[in-house]
Amino acid sequence: MSYYGSTDYSYNSDFNLRVRDMKKGNLDFGWLDDARDKVEVRRQDPRRGLMLQDIEVGDYAIENTPEVVRENRGLAPRGAILAEGSDQPDLGPTLNKKSDVWGYRVQSYWEEAMSRQWNVTTDVPWQDMDKYEIPEEIEFAFCQLCTLLSEVEMIATDLPSKWSHHMNSQFQEVKGFIATQCIDEARHAEVFRKRALANGVGLLRASVRGEHALKGILEADSYSEGSVFLHVLGEGFILTLFRSSEFISPTPVEQRMFQLVMQDEARHVSYGLQHLKYLMDECPEARPQINGFLDEAERHLTGLFNPDQLESMIVLGGKGTSPECIKRGVETVGAFQGKQIQEYFHRAERAGLPERRERSPLLELQQRMLTAIQAV
């Protein structure tokens, strides 16, 4: 054990004597000395139960929390009374500013996440797969896509878990929300793994290029950099990929699969946008740092467009491997990539970074890739 408390309560005589008194019925009710006036909590919509937004009152409200939290560095939740002069342990949180982690509407994202959980085993109609005969080249292409998406979901699980314990407990809604993201992403990895194996093909080639791109997310120097890379840039691109994949899915089973993962992914992207917007509003001096980071992150992200993934998408988009199908697939993939980039620029603009459209290398890199594909 690496941590030993400052007091061994099992041998503390004062504590043991106090416990004996309590067993005799001698309670001092000291914990009531600091009791506050009752708070007035009203359910805004009784049909939906008691929401986190409903309990944002008084000292419990995030708006009444200072930008920098200095007093509480332990586990006390926001609004709890800290004993004066107490030896509260310092857990060493490094994210103690609201602008480090907070985003508009975080409470609503938590509520949505909790109400829209789904089960890979029972909510995907696996029993219907036998109804459809999928051409071999399409099945292999889809399993290659599932392999890449499994890698993506791994990093999307690891990034939130890496930063959660660094967050001050005052920001428990953010800690709770990114915990739901870990659950979501683990479920996505499960669904893509199951689909790859369901028809007997299995997972195919892992992407060295893609994993280097994903490592950049995990190695971000700050939570905000990691969030903008993962939630806004990375998951934004993946959300568009999910929409396109639903369109080119070989059967309704895969379509349903993408519909389910999209509802989770859209929530993650929305949180990332609202965190970035909050950061730009409350800490505008961070703009040069975020822009500089995105200059490099956008180049990193092109690693996801590796040849294996592009070819599998071309086969799926063209619905075959004949010259006519490949030509149609190239056109489909080109349109899809353009949509990914334009939707990303639109999100960045909404979050307060309209300059990404002018300074981003993505359009140039996309054109180079398309030219190379069309030349083959």
Q: Overview of this structure, please?
A:
With 376 residues, the chain is an all-alpha fold. The protein has a single domain (103-375), classed as Ribonucleotide Reductase, subunit A (Orthogonal Bundle). It is 60% helix and 0% strand. The chain has 14 helices and no strands. The radius of gyration is 25 Å and the shape is elongated. The chain starts with 12 loop residues before the first helix and ends with a helix.
TL;DR of this structure?
60% of the residues lie in helices and 0% in strands.
Query: What is the mean pLDDT?
Result: 91
Provide the number of structural domains: 1
Low-confidence stretches: none
Strand content: under 5%
State the helicity in percent bands.
55-70%
CATH superfamily: Ribonucleotide Reductase, subunit A
Main beta sheet strand tally, sense and closure: none
Counted by DSSP, the helix tally is 14
Task: Give the overall silhouette.
Answer: elongated
Structural class: mainly alpha
Can you tell me the CATH topology? Ribonucleotide Reductase, subunit A
What's the CATH C level?
Mainly Alpha
Radius of gyration computed on alpha carbons: 25 Å
The SSE order reads HHHHHHHHHHHHHH
Q: Which architecture name does CATH use?
A: Orthogonal Bundle
Distance between the first and last residues' Cα: 60 Å
**Count of individual beta strands:** 0
